[in-house]
């Protein structure tokens, strides 16, 4: 299935405990970018606090680094497949995946299910902080100066 068909097949799928924002990110990372992210089980008493603490403290966070700010303010320079951490205030409580070709974020929420939205639309919906994270890759060792 090509990228557009795959993404279209996801649109409108309902949020469930097995299809949360994180579960969608795990699937999209695997299908489109060949990355394996860990599964995270949601607790029975799911709260915003739990989501914020899990995003802040999960060991997977160490495999991703925040993308540098773009050279042009307001432009997004994150690579295709960057994780998108969204916060209403200071701490992220929602995750999506940046689709650079589409200039949109795919995410899943309890109200609307899977959606693909522009960053200004996310901000208008109350996600005031939108941060992008790229995988940490091992850089080759620096060569000593000659």
How would you explain this protein's 3D organization?
The protein is of the alpha+beta class. The protein has a single domain, classed as endopeptidase domain like (from Nostoc punctiforme) (endopeptidase fold (from Nostoc punctiforme)), CATH 3.90.1720.10. The protein has four helices and six strands. It has helices at 3-10, 21-33, 48-57, 119-124, and strands at residues 64-66, 83-87, 94-99, 104-109, 113-117, 129-135. It has a six-stranded antiparallel β-sheet. A hairpin with a 4-residue loop joins strand 3 (94-99) and strand 4 (104-109). The longest helix has 13 residues, at 21-33. It is globular. The N and C termini lie far apart (50 Å). The model is unreliable at 138-142 (pLDDT under 50). This is NlpC/P60 domain-containing protein. It comes from Ancylobacter polymorphus.
Describe the SSE topology:
Blueprint: H1 3-10, H2 21-33, H3 48-57, E1 64-66, E2 83-87, E3 94-99, E4 104-109, E5 113-117, H4 119-124, E6 129-135
Antiparallel strand pairs: 1-6, 2-3, 2-6, 3-4, 4-5
Protein name: NlpC/P60 domain-containing protein
Total beta strands: 6
Task: Write down the overall geometry.
Answer: globular
Sequence stretches where pLDDT stays below 50 over 5 or more residues = 138-142
Largest sheet: 6 strands, antiparallel
Strand order of the largest sheet: 1-6-2-3-4-5
> What CATH first level would be assigned?
Alpha Beta
Helix content: 25-40%
Mean pLDDT over the full residue set: 88
* Gyration radius from CA atoms, angstroms: 16 Å
Looking at the overall shape, the CATH architecture is Alpha-Beta Complex
Protein name: NlpC/P60 domain-containing protein
């Amino acid at each position: 299935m090509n990228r557009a068909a795959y993404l279209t097949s996801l649109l409108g799928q309902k949020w469930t405990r097995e299809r949360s924002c994180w579960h969608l990110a795990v699937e999209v990372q695997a299908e489109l970018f060949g990355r394996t992210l860990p599964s995270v089980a949601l607790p029975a008493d799911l709260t915003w606090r739990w989501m914020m603490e899990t995003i802040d403290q999960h060991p997977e966070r160490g495999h991703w680094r925040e993308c540098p700010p773009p050279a042009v303010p307001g432009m997004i320079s994150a690579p295709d497949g960057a994780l998108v951490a969204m916060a209403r205030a200071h701490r992220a409580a929602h995750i999506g995946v940046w689709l650079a070709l589409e200039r949109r974020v795919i995410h899943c929420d309890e109200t609307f299910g899977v959606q693909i939205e522009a960053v200004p639309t996310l901000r208008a919906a109350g996600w005031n902080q939108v941060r992008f994270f790229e995988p940490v890759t091992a850089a080759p060792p620096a060569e000593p100066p000659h």
